[in-house]
User: Fold these one by one.
Assistant:
Number 1:
Amino acid sequence: MAYAEKVYKVRNGKQTKQYTWRACYKKPDGSKGTEPGFPTKKLAEDWGDQQEAAMRSGAWIDPAKLATPFGAWVKVWKTANQRV
């Protein structure tokens, strides 16, 4: 079952009173998956539950594998913006 963790912000090396929530869920290989940046605990838990439901239905794609490295985007941008 997915759950949420409180993540405190750090400023100048010190923990502040401000925080966001991180969704935590179990990946198919048994490792822990996380996604940070949720404003509420409920949103984080709901997102984690959606990930686990997608795994059960076979429609899940690991969010970490969806990220495109910046260098790859630069190459695409340069190719698309070459002057003819």
Number 2:
Amino acid sequence: LTISGAISLAVSEINAPDGLLGSRGHSLSFIVAETYGEEAISIRQTASLWTRLTISGAISLAVSEINAPDGLLGSRGHSLTFIVAETYGDSHSLTFIVAETYGEEAISIKQTASLWTRNVSAYIGPQETCTHEGRMAAAFDIVMISYFCTDYETSDKTFFPTFARTRPPISQISKSVAAVLLAFQWSQVAFFYLNSPEYAEFGKIASSIIGVLESVGILVTFRKWWDAPYHHGYSDNPFVQMIRDTYAHVRIYVILGHYYEHLGLMVAMEEMGLFDKGEYFVVGVDIEQYDSRDPEKYLRGMLLDNPDPVAQAAYRSYIGVLPSAARGYENFTEQVNYYCEQPPFNFVNPLKDIGANKIIRPEAAYLYDAVYLYANALVSTMEANESTSNTTAIMQRFFRTHYHSILG
């Protein structure tokens, strides 16, 4: 709901009279396809829905810019069209179909095959999983640009020749963690991470981090997890017992989870006096972008107004590994929020009445970038007088190519 507008934006810009495709008499069409017949939507599917609520507007934003008179496609007489739940046979259109998967791999695989039968030109996605879908895209000889999935296997172009991504792979996060530990010559750590069905991505990232640490000679002495999101101050702190089980044997802790879960670990260690002599330290891994608008939130619990004084003292013994904030990102999030409320998504912002916007996840930017990368590849291919149905030609425009992301 919070990123879908990005594809509408990208398509509208690409299809504008002076846009990337519009200026050439072509258009790019989007089709939003819904799946039904599931008896229940799981917790994980609910989490997937919230992601859509917070990033979908990014695709509308990208489309509108690309199709504008001075846009990538609009300036060339071409356009990118966003069509909801319908396909059209215009021989000059390139069709995108937005298909729901609810974050479930089986449904995602089925949708990948279904979309192939509808003669799509490219896949933007899928969301949570992409390994099997990427292999299918290669077999179908269709471009697949992932804006969300971090499966590291897809980086092997021998098996995934038509796959590209705008979101950094999890191996990049893992290498950053290893670099911090090696810089301080910390060779033995305890590793804590969130292991919950509704946040399955953390399990994948945890496996990657452990593998990379071991490959560079860092010993992971303890591996422990908690099985549900923890909000500090509202439930029993799961880290108290984890620390009691490990502190006598290790001094450096690595935690992978939400920022408010890091807070629980830091407060527990501070209250146990482990930071008093500077003998313990924590490296926190957060996959969410740093919130430069509200840095104090990292020192307070959920729904609290003031920083926790215990946390303020504890965070002197903490280093965070997380994506940095981009300049101008606030303007982008405002636009994505706007497009999320527009057709075809029509995702209402429940915070609008109090003058607030939904928090837009970084994946909205990756989705926005994916649409632009595909549009740019189309233009480059057409200008070289090559067929836009030539997947090899399209993919050559992706690999070893530098681009300016909306994130900077």
